[in-house]
Structures are given as structure tokens and as C-alpha cells.
Amino acid sequence: MMGGATARVPAKINLHLGVGPLRDDGFHELSTLYCALSLYDDVTVRAADELSVTVHGESRRQVPSDATNLAARAVVALAAHAGTDPRVEITINKSIPVAGGMAGGSADAAGALVAAARLWRLDIERDELLAIAADLGSDVPFSVVGGAALGTGRGERLLPVLHRGEMHWVLAVAGTGLSTPDVYREIDRLRARDDADRPAAAGVARPDALMQALASGDVHAVAPLLHNDLQPAALSLQPMLRRTLRAGREAGALAGMVSGSGPTCAFLCADADAAVSVAAELSGSGVAKAVRTASGPVPGARLVQNN
Ligand code: ATP
């Protein structure tokens, strides 16, 4: 078909997710170390008479195909910025788990921005695109830039992080998703309950040791430094995830944790062979609906050749 543009966009995990206090605007102050992984959604945008969204992939029924789809919202926002009409047909080929804590919706928004900017031949500065991305969602700017980055504010303020080598991961995808707002509400509830033992805002300290380990490229130094403040909340809402985390470690992963707001669990492995073996064992154990291997950091949203 003529006149289309396709962007390929990676999933993310948070190697560190520090959650600070609730801000007046309803968001939490975050200090997070994002890492983009080689699990991708493809977002194609073509000129059409009206805005439409079609989703392909196993999880298509869990994704809205109306104007609430984040990719549609992204195209509308970019069109408003450019003074044009958002009359495009958006096609999403989805591989990133939905409501899995891997920023699937944000990836589609980032892909739609990059693809529509190309389709419309917009002369838009990177910073302008990132500002539109940040308005769409806290994780959208990172989905645009990819790699490894420190996120502050509500996650939208990014600094690139030096990293060496490739890390190999196994992802255990759960049968039922978790809503990100629910997980944040649960962490607030748990913290209010345990308030007495919690040092104020400890979570937002910068993960310096982890950043050094990433720069060294030593996966064995990275493993013990992985941290997610949201994990207790995700485990509280889906207690079965404890079994998944245990199974991954028993299968030989160096470390395992809930990815972002969950429920996907991410396991860091020593190398590519170890990841294949951990994935095989986890698949056999039946603790997850699906098991995938992925590596990273990988680049963010990028245009790919359209057939
Ligand atoms: P995050 O890691 O950013 O918190 P997530 O990976 O847990 O997000 P998403 O896959 O982004 O969650 O989906 C969250 C909800 O957003 C879904 O339940 C779905 O209804 C809605 N949604 C809107 N647009 C999309 C999209 N393009 N892809 C997936 N979900 C979408």
C-alpha cells in the first residue's frame, strides 16, 4: 500500500524503580533506570479518510481500537501541534504484553509519533517530539529514545546512561494484567500501613551503583542491584507472582524481579545460552502464560522499511 510509514518500538523494563512520595498533581516522584528490550511492536500509519486503529497479535482483544488507543491519541496530539488533520489509518502489530508493566501502550504512542512525523514529512525538533510524548504518558519519551536512561520527575525527564555489552533476559508473561494506577494505589496503601518503618522518600535516590555496574558491562555486578519499589504492591495484588519469581531463580537466572508495575517478571541471565535454558525451564513449570527471551539495551522507536 502507498504512502505508509512504519516505526518499530521496543518494550521497556525498569532495572531500578524508586517510587517517592505522591505529588500534588497525583503522580509519584520517580527515580528509574529504564532499559529497552528486543521485544517490539510495529506501528504503521497511512493516509486515510478518517482516523482508525487496527490491532493484530494474540493480545489484540485487550487493546482498544478506538480514539482511546494511545497510538490514536499520539497522532491527534501531533496533528494538533502541526496544524494538520489526524486522518490516518493506524495498524499495530503487537508483541509487547498488554498491561504487563512493559510500556506497551507507551511504545505504540511513541511509534505513532515517529511514523506520523515521517508520513506528514514534519520538520519537528527532537525536543518538541519528546515534549508531546511526555504529555501522552510518563514512559512515552523513553519509548522514543530507548537504550538505557535515567528517568526522573514522573519518569519523563531523561538522561542517557552509559552501558556496555548486551544483557540477556527472560520474561514471564502472566495471564492477567495489572492496572498501573491500581499498583500505585496499592503501594500508597502498603506505605500508609507501614509508615513508621519507612524512611521518607528513600526510593528516589539515584541508583549510582547500578549505573556504574551498567557502565562496566558486568552482568554479575548488575544482578544484585536490580530493584523495584512497586514489587511488594504487585505481589500483594497477584500473590502467585512469588512462585514465578522463585521458579526463575531456581531455573538459573542471576536475578528476577517484577517489571515496572507488573505482572510480567523479568529474569537477568548470565548469557544468551543461559537465557534459553531458563526460558525452557520456566515454560515447562507452567507458572507463566508465555515465556520470551529478549536482550537489551536496544534503540528506541525507529523507522523501518515499509513493504
Ligand atoms: P506501563 O508499563 O507503561 O505502566 P503497561 O505495559 O502495564 O504500562 P499497557 O500495555 O500500556 O500497560 O496497557 C495499559 C492499558 O492501556 C491497557 O489495559 C489498554 O486498555 C490501554 N491501551 C491503550 N492503548 C493501548 C495500546 N496501544 N496498547 C496497549 N494498551 C493500550
UniProtKB/TrEMBL annotation:
Residues involved in ATP binding: P97, V98, A99, G100, G101, M102, A103, G104, G105, S106, A107
Protein name: 4-diphosphocytidyl-2-C-methyl-D-erythritol kinase
PANTHER family (UniProt xref): 4-DIPHOSPHOCYTIDYL-2-C-METHYL-D-ERYTHRITOL KINASE, CHLOROPLASTIC (PTHR43527)
Chain's role: Catalyzes the phosphorylation of the position 2 hydroxy group of 4-diphosphocytidyl-2C-methyl-D-erythritol.
All residue ranges annotated as the GHMP kinase N-terminal domain in the record: 69-147
EC number assigned by the record: 2.7.1.148
A biological process term (GO) from this entry: isopentenyl diphosphate biosynthetic process, methylerythritol 4-phosphate pathway
Segment forming the signal sequence: none
Stretches assigned to the GHMP kinase C-terminal domain: 210-283
Entry keywords, A to Z: ATP-binding, Isoprene biosynthesis, Kinase, Nucleotide-binding, Transferase
Catalytic activity as recorded in UniProt: 4-CDP-2-C-methyl-D-erythritol + ATP = 4-CDP-2-C-methyl-D-erythritol 2-phosphate + ADP + H(+)
Originating organism: Gordonia phthalatica
UniProt record similarity statement: Belongs to the GHMP kinase family. IspE subfamily.
SUPFAM superfamilies linked to this entry: GHMP Kinase, C-terminal domain, Ribosomal protein S5 domain 2-like
GO MF entry, a single one: 4-(cytidine 5'-diphospho)-2-C-methyl-D-erythritol kinase activity
Pathway this chain belongs to: Isoprenoid biosynthesis; isopentenyl diphosphate biosynthesis via DXP pathway; isopentenyl diphosphate from 1-deoxy-D-xylulose 5-phosphate: step 3/6
Pfam families in the cross-refs: GHMP_kinases_C (PF08544), GHMP_kinases_N (PF00288)
Catalytic-site annotation from UniProt: K12, D139
